[in-house]
Amino acid sequence: MMKFYTLILFLLIFQSAITAQNYQQRFNEIDVKHYNLAIQFNDSTNNIQAKMTVSLAFKQLVNEFHLDLVQKDSTGKGMLITSVFQNNDSVQYIHADNKITIQPNDIKTDSIFNFEITYNGVPKDGLIIGENLHGDRTFFADNWPNRTHNWFPCVDHPSDKATIEFKIIAPNHYQVIANGYLFEETNLSNNSKLYHYKTAVPLPTKVMTIGVGRFAVQHLGETNNIPVSTWVYPQTKEKGFYDFANSKKILEFYIEKFGEYPYQKLANVQSKTQFGGMENAGAIFYFEKSVTGERKHEDLIAHEIVHQWFGNSASETDWPHLWLSEGFANYFSSLYILETKGEAAFQERMKEERKTVLNFYKKKQTPVIDSQNTNLMSLLNANSYEKGAWVLHMLRKKLGDETFWKGIRSYYEKFKLSNASTNDFKNVMKNVSGQNLDAFFTQWLQKAGHPVLKTSWLYYQNKLRLLIDQTQENSFQFPLDVEIIYADGTSEIKTIEISQIAIPYEIETKGEVKDVKFDPNAWLLFEMAP
Predict the structure, then answer these.
(1) Whether residue 162 sits in one domain with residue 87
(2) How much is the mean pLDDT over the chain?
């Protein structure tokens, strides 16, 4: 049995490496500049009719190149290609293994070429067609992590960014939301309507989106020249309008913290996403039951708005660096809680998230940067979210607020509308702070686990003697705040640097010590040994 599982693990790691290599090979060969998707929906069938024009440049001369698109299978779901043209000339192609292999004609490396792919089919995933909780028919894209190629041809990887425009034809009793700005809205003669949206800046495919359905729409005005709107099901429009009314205030908070908002609008949309929220660029989708009329999910709204900067604009280079998206969104939504609800609520939230990290480690001992995990959905775990947030929290303590925020803004400015790795983020923070952060990033992100401390203390003649022993397998280096509580009711906090070796610490005190508390203000990701 052990040999079998070892072989399976090896095959999974090998497949992951092959997949990463294949995408890197594509990046070396082609650069997608723009997607132009014309797509038509109807109420009589879930079959979509579509034509995608992919504009791309060749980085080198090749005999063939590849785009992702799920093909029709024995269930009847998937896409069937009827033609592929290059600049109005038919070209040879093969559609197999959920990829289109295209053999281009007479290419050069100094020009843009347009490939027009006409296809149809019932999406297996990615574009969800069905009834919402009120029984109304809806069409919602739900692409994360790499499900976009279920409904249109693309390079389905976060490192490949391009602008996109949607030309959507739908029955005229629907409204349509998508990325970018509404360039055209035209009533057609056959009881249908055309909506034409365009983006001004490139996006990763994971946050390209459309939503078609019956909506109540409220325009909240502008924040920093960014129009903000709410799109909810009409059956509960008053509740939905109330729930999302604070989004302008949230957006303003993050513009002040991070810098210029990267997209042309912010629309908050009630939808059928399988996630709590899906951070589609400029058109965020929230789960159907998020609308309560009680503003129960303000932290979720903050989380998804943070993603517009981190995850959408400054995107991870590859999936193992997902914490640069989810950890950032988690932590900066916590800092919004600090701003609006105060220190006590913030500390309680951080402590709860610490518990989540500790409980996750009991089940799965993996590092935050998990390059061996090929199940992308399973990366949506406490390492990417809560532990990633805690890494930022400890980094903020280490650098101080002024340097931390300067580093965050510098990192975003350098990698906006682009991609970054953990090492890229570390180097920016190193340059801004002037500190060597190698050990910090290695122990918290590249190694599994956290400090598990066994402590004891003794007071004698105005001196506090502490013994702090790390009981976990891998030793950590970190500062530990110690609150000394005196017999007269006063207290003070001292910070000691914990090394890899257990040594006694001696602290001069101001009087008789009644008690000692470790990490009183929740700045360290650790647990106490039983």
Answers:
(1) yes
(2) 94
**122: Cα within 13 Å, side-chain hemisphere:** 10
Residue ending a domain, among 292, 308, 324, is: 308
We report the CATH number of the domain holding residue 434 as: 1.10.390.10
Would you call 153 helix, strand, or coil by DSSP? coil
Predicted confidence at residue 24, as pLDDT, reads: 84
Please count the structural domains in the chain.
Answer: 4
Is residue 206 within 8 Å of 248, Cβ to Cβ? no
Nearest to 173, CA basis, from 152, 187, 159, 162: 187
> How many of the other CB atoms lie within 10 Å of CB of 352?
10
Q: Is the pLDDT of residue 389 over 50?
A: yes
pTM over 0.85: yes
Give 420's strand partners. 316
Q: Average pLDDT of 338-354?
A: 98
DSSP 317-372: SSGGGTHHHHHHHHHHHHHHHHHHH-HHHHHHHHHHHHHHHHHHHHH----SS-TT
Same domain, 294 and 348: no
Residue 458 belongs to what domain range?
Answer: 452-528
Are 164 and 34 in contact by the 8 Å Cβ rule? The answer is yes
330 and 279 inside one domain:
no
Report the alpha-carbon distance of residue 378 to residue 356 in Å, rounded: 16
The model's confidence at residue 11, banded by pLDDT at 50, 70 and 90, is very low
Does 415 reside within a domain?
yes
Element spanning 403, H or E: helix 401-415
Mean pLDDT of 465-482: 94
Of 446, 462, 490, the residue that ends a domain is: 446
Q: Which residues pair with 467 in a beta bridge?
A: 456, 504
Residue with tokens 């950032």: 328
- Same domain for 339 and 361, yes or no, is yes
The 3-class secondary structure across 73-100, one letter per residue, is CCCCCEEEEEEEEECCEECEEEEECCEE
37 or 8, higher pLDDT = 37
- One domain, residues 515 and 479: yes
Measured CA to CA, the distance from residue 11 to residue 56 in angstroms comes to 33
* Angle (CA) 338 339 344, round 5°: 35
pLDDT tens, residue by residue, 176-220: 999 999 999 999 988 999 999 999 999 999 999 999 999 999 999
Strands 161-171 and 30-40: parallel
CATH number, domain containing residue 492: 2.60.40
Q: What is the enclosing helix (H) or strand (E) of 212?
A: strand 210-213
| Residue 14 resides in a domain | no
How far apart are alpha carbons 262 and 199 in whole angstroms?
Answer: 11
Q: Phi first, then psi: what are they for 64, rounded to 5°?
A: -155, 160
pLDDT band at 521 (very low <50, low <70, confident <90, very high): very high
Rounded (10°) angle between helices 323-341 and 298-306: 130
In the chain, count of helices (H) and strands (E)? 10, 30
- The pLDDT, as a whole number, for residue 25 is 87
